[in-house]
């Protein structure tokens, strides 16, 4: 066959292939014509197009009927002192876990303005996650690069996100220090650039370790190289976050600003006195995920903050069961770690999470009818942010009507640094709650005894907070 004939044959095959694709699900000329004709281009459509093209959709969809005075009274409310600010970082899990413990410390010791150092705990979180990645690379060193676990590791060498399990793993091993002993830095407030550099270096180191495994290096040699690599990561963390203190002097003040005591502490002795070891040792994580079977225990493989730490373990329950335990905890003046899909139906100016905040259906002329289970199954919704659950308002029948959380976006955001959510919103977008076991129902604790169903690290529901 000559080249011209072959070219013509190839072109004909390409045209036939394109036509075949059209008839098997592509947009054909006829279908496109139908789509064009379906759009009427009415004057109201033109007005909407003009409005939407030059404005924020949320402003146009804002439900003016829902802008009446917001009820800020709560029948059950745990007092807190000072709203924290995670700035441009994904450390909501860390701020939230520490704020739960902080509330107890303030109440127990009658402290004035007080925060734990998030930078200190974040330092060791990042170091431990770096080791988790490198050791994971070693463990999977004989698997091909396109193995799903290897692929997941190199896609996620480390992050600034996490869960309450991470708070437990990091604080129980490294203790706590007050914020003024190791304050925030630009890199802790704005983690993206540091995270990018750490991830870049870790991926490089991971490839080097895989090469050692492939060449049959002895375990001792691989461990030595890993330690040297972590030394590089440690130095990068020090340059960005500072040197973690091993011993420090700290002065305790009362709410009037008067000195109570000046003493010398280590991070572990500070944890023992001003932390909450009972919470770290006795808690249960609850989940409301209607896409999976209720009254079952689940564990997320490799979703932890330390290689020698704990995988994320939770009990999946109906929302009403979780509310029962949340109310019991709040009635006993105990805040809780809480996470949700915070971006859905949030009016940031008012600090209100309400399904009626925006009317996108009227604006777009269509309905959005998926329920919570369907949104989870189609990746339309998942937990994105952790906050501290601190209040609930109960009606005369004892049924919750609204809830309030202490946020970590600064004191000027939302409602005085807090977010208020209707009970209807809570049902649709609340996902996780951590309660002390003394507030858990017998049924929840019984489920916790089950052998957990293990889910893969790459399950989209468990990518970490924020």
Polypeptide structure, described:
- The protein is of the alpha+beta class and 466 residues long.
- The chain is built from 18 helices and 14 strands.
- The chain has helices spanning 3-23, 29-38, 43-53, 57-61, 92-109, 118-139, 148-155, 164-174, 186-189, 192-214, 219-241, 267-274, 277-281, 319-331, 360-364, 372-377, 423-429, 442-448; strands spanning 76-77, 248-253, 259-265, 283-287, 296-300, 312-316, 336-340, 346-347, 352-353, 385-394, 400-406, 418-422, 430-436, 453-455.
- The strands form two sheets. Strands 1, 4, 5, 6, 7, 8, 9, 10, 11, 12, 13 and 14 form a twelve-stranded mixed beta sheet that branches.
- α6 (118-139) packs across α8, α6 runs parallel beside α10 and α10 runs antiparallel to α11.
- The mean pLDDT is 92.
Radius of gyration: 26 Å
**Distance from first to last alpha carbon:** 61 Å
Fraction in beta strands: 15-25%
Number of helices: 18
Please provide the count of β strands: 14
pLDDT < 50 stretches: none
Which outline best applies?
A: globular
Q: Could you say which structural class the secondary elements and strand pairing correspond to? A: alpha+beta
Bin the helical content.
Answer: 40-55%
Largest sheet: 12 strands, mixed
Rounded mean pLDDT score: 92
